[in-house]
Amino acid sequence: MAKQQRMMRVEQRSQLAAIQQLENRSDEELEAETKYKAAAQAILGARAAERYDAKAARAHFQRAIAAARPQERLQLRRMADASMALAERRAGDLRKATERLGVESPSTRQLRGLQLLGLIAPPASAGILARIRGIVLAIVLIVAVLAIAFGIVNLVALPFGGVSVDIGIFYAVVLVLVALGVLAYLGRRRQKRARAQRAQQGAAGSD
Predict the structure, then answer these.
(1) Nearest Cα to 96, choosing from 19, 84, 43?
(2) Quick one: DSSP state of residue 126?
(3) Per-residue b/e over 111-133, b at no fewer than 16 CB within 10 Å?
(4) Which residues contact 131 (CB under 8 A, 6 or more apart)?
């Protein structure tokens, strides 16, 4: 009887600890997961939040909380709060939610980037005026970035006699694309570190 009770306690603790175990699985594998459904749905919710899909993130965390044991639900709600703040581009709420979750808060630069993203691409709940403002800001930002890149290209080409406008625009676009590629790569690395951190915190919170 005592052995059976110990096995039950280990299984209870392993529900959120399984987040680490399931982290590398595909979305399809996580959807099919039944033994650790709460952990699988929490991972799917976090991934949806990283895509800024607030609707999907909320649905996944609702299923995770429903499938979790009572002692696990507080930690899952804290994870959900942090993920929803990210998905809805609420920088201030994200800082508070990560502090309650017990993980390292995003840096000031990251929070400012999230605020800017919230202005350019507000969530659907923000309203039509916010979305119109976002479109205008996006156009202004694209023009400004291309102008800066064009200036850099001309500055680099100046010792070689300069470049024509059309060639300068071409290389400016290439420069912007390369910069975006580098930023995307670094962003994915940060997301992986954040996932690992959330998994470790979820495991600690389940003990």
Answers:
(1) 84
(2) G
(3) eebbeeebebbbbeebeeeeeee
(4) 122
Query: CA 119 to CA 32: how far, in whole Å?
Result: 36
CA distances from 142 to 74, 84, 114, 152, 177 (A): 42, 28, 17, 15, 12
Indicate whether this model's pTM tops 0.70: no
CA-based R_g, the chain, Å = 22
Model confidence pLDDT, tens digit, residues 129-143? 877 888 888 888 888
- Per-residue confidence (pLDDT) for residue 44, from 0 to 100: 94
Q: Which of 76, 74, 118 is nearest to 93 (CA)?
A: 118
The whole domain housing 171 covers 1-207
Q: Are 61 and 86 in contact (CB under 8 A)?
A: no
> In 3D, which of 103, 96, 97 has the Cα closest to residue 82?
97
Number of domains in the chain: 1
- Helices 70-87 and 54-67 sit at what angle, rounded to 10 degrees? 180
